[in-house]
């Protein structure tokens, strides 16, 4: 083989290696993909979305779901508007999505679940709390979500409808913080989602509210317009809306869309 032929062969081999390396970013030899789905989800979805992620990747091994980012919907919306890369957005109410849609980053998506509020108390309900009015008693330490976040908005709607003024010792930025403070004995009671009481197991008890239907939260899911992995993101959103996805959400106490 001439020197020119040897050089040409070497260049072709190098080109083949480069193309193979580029191809491995999208498609593996077993047909799977490296497409990773980044999900921002409301704190109240933790648990259910971890299970949905596991079930989704079992049904769709070609996709990978990154550890889901959970926080208050308002805080997540702020990150998205400021440029955070995200493939799927799942919030605890429709109005929390407004900053994202107003920034032209997504449409309003689809409603995939509903949720209602309960009073969360310590096991055994030591302060004998049975109504919203009990939260206003001077010997009851109450913690609420801040009015800006979905659980706080729903709490204020219920309290206003009942004409009850509660002086909370703190207003938390997500429902998980309210649950944690009651479970740790830092407060006697608080308003959280019914699904959070169920998820807390023996750490909390729930007091159901006769007017809970006055503040039903509707959860939207959407794939933003600039999603880095739009095909994978749509597959996940479709899975959440599917019969299998809805079955998992129901197991956590969420209502139908």
From TrEMBL:
Annotated residues that bind molybdate are located at 44, 73, 175, 193
Give the GO terms filed under biological process for this record: molybdate ion transport
* Keywords in alphabetical order: Metal-binding, Molybdenum, Signal
Classify the source by domain of life.
Bacteria
- Sorted alphabetically, which InterPro entries does this protein's record hold? ModA (IPR005950), ModA/WtpA (IPR050682)
Question: Which residues does UniProt assign to the signal peptide?
Answer: 1-29
Q: Does the keyword Signal apply?
A: yes
Any Pfam family the entry gives = SBP_bac_11
Q: Which GO terms describe its molecular function?
A: metal ion binding; molybdate ion binding
Is Transmembrane helix one of the keywords UniProt gives this record? no
Output the PROSITE patterns linked to this UniProt entry: PROKAR_LIPOPROTEIN (PS51257)
Recorded hits in PANTHER family, A to Z, give: MOLYBDATE-BINDING PERIPLASMIC PROTEIN (PTHR30632), SULFATE-BINDING PROTEIN (PTHR30632:SF0)
Q: What family is this protein classified in? A: Belongs to the bacterial solute-binding protein ModA family.
Instruction: Read off the NCBIfam families from this record.
Output: modA (TIGR01256)
Query: Could you identify this protein by its name?
Result: Molybdate transport system substrate-binding protein
